[in-house]
């Protein structure tokens, strides 16, 4: 069987529909094909009874899924709102739906921020963004450090990866994704608990030994790690040095390990 995710025209919604209509596939997660309604992302779904979907979403609904008037779907805005809607005009570019129910899911109390160094291979950063979203990180900050080699960051593409991961993991809240910022700027954050993971042979605490607060930020270094000067700056701004284990991890792996420990 061909891997549809490698196709140059691959869209997450296409893949979801393929899986939804082929529930007998080996290894296919039950919770996806058991979903009653397909879910789509729309930014503005509150305070309205009739909503015209974006052109991209309209095409997915009408042309890809071939949905018709009277059929139902769900919409989420990534801010805790999930609406159930019924198609009233199946126009392929301006599909209109009627909101028939709306639910709000409060955001979890714990706020977890991961500031992570940019890496040369963008696909590795994309993998981190997907997994961090699935795990439940609330904020992601791409870091420009002294050892950052690549600063090209396609925010629109990265945002779409977060949206797909949010829908796939059946969450109602989208992590806040920042544009890349400098290391010095991130140090001014106001989180209650501030950690920095680095590979220097200095005294560090194991991250699993912490009693975590409800507001935590961790800094993850780029390829080549933070410089001694950056580590010193972080300590001056009350960041606590931590270790993620006994092995040296890639940047994106360290990010996922930290997300797992802090969120789960």
Q: Which features would summarize this protein structure in a list?
A:
264 residues, alpha/beta, Ribosomal Protein L25, Chain P, Alpha/beta knot, 2 domains, eight-stranded parallel β-sheet, five-stranded mixed β-sheet
How large is the count of helical segments? 8
CATH class of the largest domain: Alpha Beta
Radius of gyration: 21 Å
CATH topology title of the largest domain? Alpha/beta knot
Q: What coarse outline follows from CA principal-axis ratios?
A: elongated
Give me the secondary-structure category.
alpha/beta
Helix-strand pattern? HHEEHEEEEHEHEEHEEEHEH
Taken together, the total number of domains comes to 2
Mean pLDDT, to the nearest integer, reads 88
Question: Span from first to last CA?
Answer: 35 Å
CATH architecture of the largest domain: 3-Layer(aba) Sandwich
- Residues in helix, %: 25-40%
Topology, number of strands:
13
Q: Poorly predicted ranges (pLDDT <50, ≥5 residues)?
A: 1-7, 19-34
CATH superfamily of the largest domain: SPOUT methyltransferase, trefoil knot domain
